[in-house]
Amino acid sequence: MDDTQQSNVLFVVLDTVRKDRLGPYGYERGTTPELSAFAEEATVFESAIAPAPWTLPVHASLFTGRYPSQHGADQGSPYLEGDATLAAVLSAAGYDTACYSSNAWITPYTGLTDGFDAQDSFFEVLPGDVLSGPLASAWQTVNDNDYLRDLASKLVRLGAMAHEKLASGEGADTKTPSVIDRTKSFIDDSESDEGWFAFVNLMDAHLPYYPPEEYREEFAPGVDPGEVCQNSKEYNSGARDIDDEEWDDIRSLYDAEIAHMDAELGRLFDWLRETGQWEETTVVVCADHGELHGEHDLYGHEFALYDQLINVPLLVKHPALEADRRDDLVELLDCYHTVLEALDVDPDDALAPTDDVSVTGRDSTRSLLSSEYRAFEGAAEPDPGQRAVLEAADGETSGDSEGRSPSSSRTQSGDDDYAFVEYAQPVIELHHLEEKASEAGIELPDDHRAYSRLRAARSTDAKYVRADRIPDEGYRLDEDPAESTPVDPSDDEVVADTERALARFEQAAGGAWIDPSETDAEDADALAEADEETRDRLRELGYLE
């Protein structure tokens, strides 16, 4: 990177926002005038791939620069431990750090806020001790004990239920303005000589959709949020049908939520300009994952790795980047290294590893600001994704006429570059799905996609998804961007190359998911082992009679 070190970083995650509903990506309904203006001075990435299709593992990857199978934060073990976070590194380097969010997964309870000097989840339904006290400690205990895993699957549902209560009814439009206000206060109060790092997650576009009235009137006039299907599991289980008119209403409410977030984000951007901090602040705006609204007969962001979920918006403003659009493949976990490079912080200098905590070193081949981006032969210790890409290049091509190594010519040109996605078997979504199916008298088959773990390799032209209970899926994205017609690797060499890249990633990550029995639940009734305090908390939240 040239002499463009910035003092501050603002990192914004638009939770559950799909790129095709945003103005910078061609949506013409006017949902995001502020983001469209921001795009005029930022780089807009067309092929940014999330490492998972839901919040917890994606944020853990953003904060560690590692794939989900590396950091281990997922529904089976829903906490990040053993990895120093980006905030911890920056705080140790002297930056003021803060995290403001209304997402239940981004709390002390999951470890994602470790290292932030200030944080607030704005998650007002649950008492504070649920997220940071005895119940949080109990969660780790039950997840580390096979006999108690059934209890863990029930506890992990607390976030989803509490969000639904918080998001519906009066006051549903108060979270994002509060997040923005607290972010402004943090920045205003920052006294660090180095600068500040502010991370915000805006949650409004996550189900259920209850946009503020002014945005509902503009984008969903006449639509009553209480009259449309707001529970994706009802649809995905087969218990509820949704016709075209209702889908239009759902999408309109979704647009209204996005418009609300855009306006509030614009308020923060304008304040940074007015206070003279805009020019010295790197700004990253992305989504952690998208959403399905009936595509592939699915609703929400569960049970699949289609592009509506994993090809997410990403816009970055930094002096080293031109105000332009880029079609090359990028991975969302690369934002970790990008922020470090923007502030010129070396984790190895700022925060020494210990026996209990490992630190991901800064890697210029994973920084969007570096001329060496994706030239993975320069990586000191290649991670599973880098290894899979390098092996693909080394095995399938020879050096070019300029004498560069195979990996150098291929990875920088993007011809054999791949992003990788992992989705362990869900707990919250599966339990809710089974409940809705049971209430409707529906028995889910053993090969229902909800029981499958998924991994995918994606290039700019193709995707291959491996599953352990349902058929694998391959697609030629350049010819079939809607992923409507699966392609067998034996019939298409580009898809075959992508499948081979996934196999290499699986080997590097510790093996493929091929045995469905590994995910079978324990038969024991673990609730019998729960103490009375935990049982009382479950009763308060509606899980026990």
Care to describe what's here?
With 545 residues, the protein is α/β, with parallel strands linked by helices. It is built from 20 helices and 14 strands. The chain has helices at 33-39, 55-64, 68-71, 86-92, 128-132, 134-143, 149-155, 158-167, 175-189, 213-219, 232-236, 244-274, 307-310, 335-343, 347-350, 384-396, 406-413, 428-439, 493-509, 532-540, and strands at residues 8-14, 43-49, 96-101, 118-120, 196-202, 281-286, 292-293, 299-300, 311-317, 325-331, 419-423, 454-458, 462-467, 473-476. The strands form three sheets. It has an eight-stranded mixed β-sheet with strand order 4-3-5-1-6-9-2-10, sandwiched between helices. A four-stranded antiparallel β-sheet has the order 11-12-13-14. The chain is globular. Residues 124-140, 146-157, 166-173, 397-413, 519-530 and 537-545 have low confidence and may be disordered.
In short:
The chain is of the alpha/beta class and 545 residues long. 36% of the residues lie in helices and 14% in strands.
SSE topology sketch:
Elements: E1 8-14, H1 33-39, E2 43-49, H2 55-64, H3 68-71, H4 86-92, E3 96-101, E4 118-120, H5 128-132, H6 134-143, H7 149-155, H8 158-167, H9 175-189, E5 196-202, H10 213-219, H11 232-236, H12 244-274, E6 281-286, E7 292-293, E8 299-300, H13 307-310, E9 311-317, E10 325-331, H14 335-343, H15 347-350, H16 384-396, H17 406-413, E11 419-423, H18 428-439, E12 454-458, E13 462-467, E14 473-476, H19 493-509, H20 532-540
Parallel strand pairs: 1-5, 1-6, 2-10, 3-4, 3-5
Antiparallel strand pairs: 2-9, 6-9, 7-8, 11-12, 12-13, 13-14
